[in-house]
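---------- Forwarded message ----------

FYI, see the Late competence protein ComER record below. Original note from H. follows.
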Amino acid sequence: MNIGFIGTGNMGSILVEGFIEGKAVNPSNIYITNRTKVKAEALQQKFPSMHVCDEASKVIEKCHLIFICVKPHDIYPLLEKHQNELTTEKCLVSITSPISVDQLEQLLPCSCIRAIPSITNRALSGVSLLTFGKNCDSYWERKLKELFSFISTPIDIDQNITRVASDIVSCGPAFFSYLTQRFIDGAVAETEIDQTTATILAGEMLIGLGELLKKGYYTLPTLQEKVCVKGGITGEGIGVLEDGIGDIFEKLFQATHSKFNEDLEIVAKQFS
């Protein structure tokens, strides 16, 4: 089966590379296009048997499964232009959170799915979030779950938790990357450790923490209990975090949801 990608920016490229390196898809079965063609051609240099198309209509013509990986505000005009080409036997997968599968189904006769990937999928790990349209053919439901299982743990989610689930799965790596960088910078500023050594140690610590959680040795609370000795050094550090963090994460989710609501309003006007 041929699979198409309209848009090869950050997430589009991550999906293409993940599916190929995870042995889910052969490069010769992938058709890609991008507004800036040189970006698509750069991806093709890694996988020469992949096909680069000049326009979206060619990708749709050649493929039955099409991923649309462009900015949310660019999706409606693109779909409106090509809606007659996205016929009932095809399946469209949108990777953007502000556009619901209901909105896609209002416009298109094909099966519609929303899949929200994570940058962790590039390492064939992490979670991908799937939401299926009411009219989505059961064949495509099975196919998408199978496809994403090569690069992630696919999880079905309801529309009402789209934003918070995306914050945790898709935005989370950036949030915790920022916190880790501040952790490293603090160590370098206050002690004699150098940036390179601190970065290596922090990275290996995060990998080890992930393995502990993945293998089920500890939950997050029990892990803290195991490391924190009463009256010890770790407890002193936790105390500083408790005092300093306050309601920072509540504010984080307020901010992401506020921006999400702005995007929803813009998209709703387009689809109405």
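H. also flagged this: The mean pLDDT is 95.
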